[in-house]
Amino acid sequence: MAQQPAPPALPVPDEVGRLYDRYTDLGSATLGENLHFGYWDTPDSTASLEEATDRLTDLLTDRLRIGPGSRVLDLGCGTGRPALRIAARTGADVTGISVSHKQIERATAAVAGHDLADRVRFERADAMDLPFAEASFDAVIALESIIHMPDRAHVLRQVARVLRPGGRLVLTDFFERAPIPDTGRPAVERYLREFMMTMVQAEDYPPLLRRAGLWFEEMTDISEPTLRRTFLELSARISRSAQQLAADYGEELVEQFNPADMTDVKEFGHLLVVAVRPVH
Fold it and tell me: Which ranges carry the Polyketide synthase-like methyltransferase domain (predicted)?
């Protein structure tokens, strides 16, 4: 893989899990129950952050090409809202996994008593060692979760193993759109370091997928409709509620969750990738 602009330390799954055990409540208080970026169809869209995050879930879901009876793995399920939305929109059965105990508790509580409870389930598991049999799923979705994993190539091989032939993978990842200038590098490196993430070059993905046994189908830069608007929305919410958030979650944690410095780093990118396990 090409050199990454992040510090050399790689995420450790158990440490990422502990981070999200601490971060989940704060993330929900700012982002909402979708712990990922929003997608605004047009620059002047009036969609709320909650609507925009649902829209990104839908954008990926539509590329899964699933329907009633399909089995879907949500790789890094957060607190469960995307899995519930996928099941409701498509009729599919969804299994969500996370390395965070708290996220799995929240997701399980969200589905309890829901009319989708027989089709949506959550369990704590590590994407580096998926506890599922070969060809268990018709599709895998990974909404901004592969950024936390120490070895993308290994994760992609795991995904290829659990996908049935013809099954589809849709994911989002962070990538370097252009060389990050010195003015923006400290903000990017801090963001990646504090949230235990790494990023790639876009050109890394076709060979990564090919070596994992997957066929590359699509790669789309979705930076413009997602990143800056989300960072601005989050910055405004944190500013409005800084005192209460600090009281509820601690000043140190709130300071970590400060997106203001990232709003104008245009070289920091958001990539949508689609791949297929071939039918031999």
Answer: 26-277
* Chain center to CA of 278: 24
Q: Which residues pair with 241 in a beta bridge?
A: none
CA–CA dist 31, 262 (Å, integer) = 16
Per the structure, the count of domains in the chain is 1
- Domain range for 20 is 13-24+46-224+268-276
111 vs 96: CA distance, rounded Å: 11
d(CA 78, CA 208): 25
Beta-carbon count within 10 A of 229 CB: 20
Q: Is residue 75 part of a domain?
A: yes
- Identify whether 57 is part of a domain: yes
Say how far apart CA 247 and CA 225 lie, in whole Å. Answer: 33
Phi, psi of 57 (to 5 degrees): -55, -45
pTM: 0.90
pLDDT digits (tens, 9 = 90+) for 150-185: 899 999 999 999 999 999 999 999 999 999 999 999
Q: Which two tokens stand for residue 137?
A: 């799923």
